[in-house]
Structure formats: C-alpha cells, structure tokens
Amino acid sequence: MKKLMFLMTVIALSATSHKAQAICNVKYNESGESIAVMEKKYPRASRRSYNIKGVKYTPLIKADGFVQEGKASWYGRPFHGRKTANGEIYNMFRYTAAHPTLPIPSCVKVTNLQNGKSVVVRVNDRGPYKSDLGTDTSNRIIDLSLKAAIQLGFRKKGVADVKIEVLPTEVLH
Question: From CA 57, how far away is CA 103, in angstroms rounded?
Fold first, then answer.
C-alpha cells in the first residue's frame, strides 16, 4: 500500500506543469543561444576545496561553457527533506542536482544520450563522490532529483549515460 501511495504521489507531481516548478527557466538570446533565468537568488555553497575519504574536490568559481559526459544517477527518499550543500531543504520533486565541483547555484542542461530527452536542473548540492561505498561511481558525474530522472526516462534503471552543459545564467530579482 505504501509503495502504491508513493507511486501515485510521484505520478501526480510529475504530471504538474514543468513551468510551475521550474527554477531555471530557459530563454534564448539574439544569437539563439540558451540562457537560464533564475527567478530569484539562491544561497551559494562554500567555494573552498574539500576532501571526501581522501579525494580532494575543488569547486569551480565559473563554469561558463562547461560540458561533461558520463553517468547520471538519482537520489530520492533517503535524502528528501534533508539539507543540501547550500542549506536548502532537498525536494526530490523539483528539478535539482548534485555535482562535486560546479558552482552552486548553476543551471545545467542534462541530456540522456540513450533517448535524447533533456531537462534543465539547478545544482544545489554536492556529490556524487568517487568514494561512495558500495557503488561504482568512477563514471558518475551528476546525481539528479527523482523528478529529473523521471523526465529523462531512467528512474527504473537508476543510471543513464548523459551529457551535461552549464547554461549561462541571468538572475531576476
């Protein structure tokens, strides 16, 4: 019964308007390039280098033009309601992501290379880490929210080959 209720909640929330829950809206400049528009300012995370189980990570100060290919995974219920790296409360029903070094906040276009589906997410957390126990994270480059994984079509599989592209971002006040 709990699984059925959870599934119905996921379906109901994923059926809601993308625009209503979007944080990084996309518009196009005169040259036809994508620009992400954040509707408000979000807290930044620390830009200092940090170590996780002996691996050093150095957050980027700027990431314009950053492109990366690798595996995406998603994180959901165990983290839902917990604080993210920038102090927000994680909501698995929003379009958000975790990346070990991209600036927080950043707007990132994520494309599933197996089916061509794309989504724009806002980076507000750190991870995945190469030292995560029990998982092969050597090619994992980004952790996505449940909602983003559903949009990209890999919720059941758990991982997907993706391309991530940081979008230039404009903040509306």
Answer: 12
pTM of the model: 0.76
**pLDDT tens digit string along 78-99?**
888 899 888 888 899 999 999 9
Cα separation, 173 vs 171, whole angstroms: 6
pLDDT in tens, 112-122: 999 999 999 99
Which three-class secondary structure string do you get for the chain? CHHHHHHHHHHHHHCCCHHHHCCEEEEECCCCCEEEEECCCCCCCCCCCEEECCEEECCCCCCCCCEEEEEEEEECCCCCCCECCCCCECCCCCCEEECCCCCCCEEEEEEECCCCCEEEEEEEECCCCCCCCCCCCCCEEEEEEHHHHHHHCCCCCCEEEEEEEECCEEECC
What domains are defined for the chain?
A: 18-171 (2.40.40.10)
